[in-house]
Design the sequence.
């Protein structure tokens, strides 16, 4: 587990950029936290770190925003509006998971039971003066990614 404090929105974006530098071409990352905690801010930093220069908006209404960035494919999902996890089938998630792609999923709890296990789970919570990001590996690939991220950030993975 990696625990990181972000004092500002910019710092949260920088953490996303650091993650983008070490992520493999196929990865599933869950982003959890209360409304306004900064899930999309982290995703914006991640996408910019991959080289995306356009705007990054929350896919709250579209549910999925696809990005082709150089030779990489990334899907940013927001499942907040799902009424039932079975609706995931209609989003084409199965096809997306077969792609060599990175998936950032906000509100994964809305798809509980229909989503596969993530490589990384990132929980964002409010602090009085910023945010705390708790990053946990859920797969072997996620554990390797967590170690690389810790090195990139100069942080220490906690047991």
Sequence:
């Amino acid at each position: 587990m990696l625990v990181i404090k972000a004092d500002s929105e910019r710092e949260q974006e920088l953490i996303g950029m650091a993650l983008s530098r070490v992520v493999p071409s196929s990865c599933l990352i869950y982003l959890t936290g209360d409304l306004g905690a900064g899930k999309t801010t982290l995703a914006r930093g991640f996408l910019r770190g991959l080289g995306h220069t356009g705007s990054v908006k929350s896919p709250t209404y579209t549910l999925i925003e696809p990005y082709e960035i150089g030779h990489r494919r990334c899907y940013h999902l927001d499942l907040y509006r799902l009424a039932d996890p079975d609706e995931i089938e209609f989003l084409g998630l199965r096809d997306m998971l077969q792609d060599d792609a990175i998936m950032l999923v906000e509100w994964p709890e809305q798809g509980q039971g229909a989503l596969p296990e993530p490589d990384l789970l990132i929980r964002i919570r409010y602090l009085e003066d910023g945010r705390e990001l708790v990053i946990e590996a859920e797969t072997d690939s996620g554990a390797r990614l967590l170690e690389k991220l810790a090195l990139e950030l100069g942080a220490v993975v906690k047991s």
Remarks:
- Residues 90 and 140 are 29 Å apart (CA to CA).
- The chain has a mean pLDDT of 89.
- The first helix runs from residue 9 to 22.
- Helices lie at 9-22, 39-50, 88-91, 93-98, 140-153.
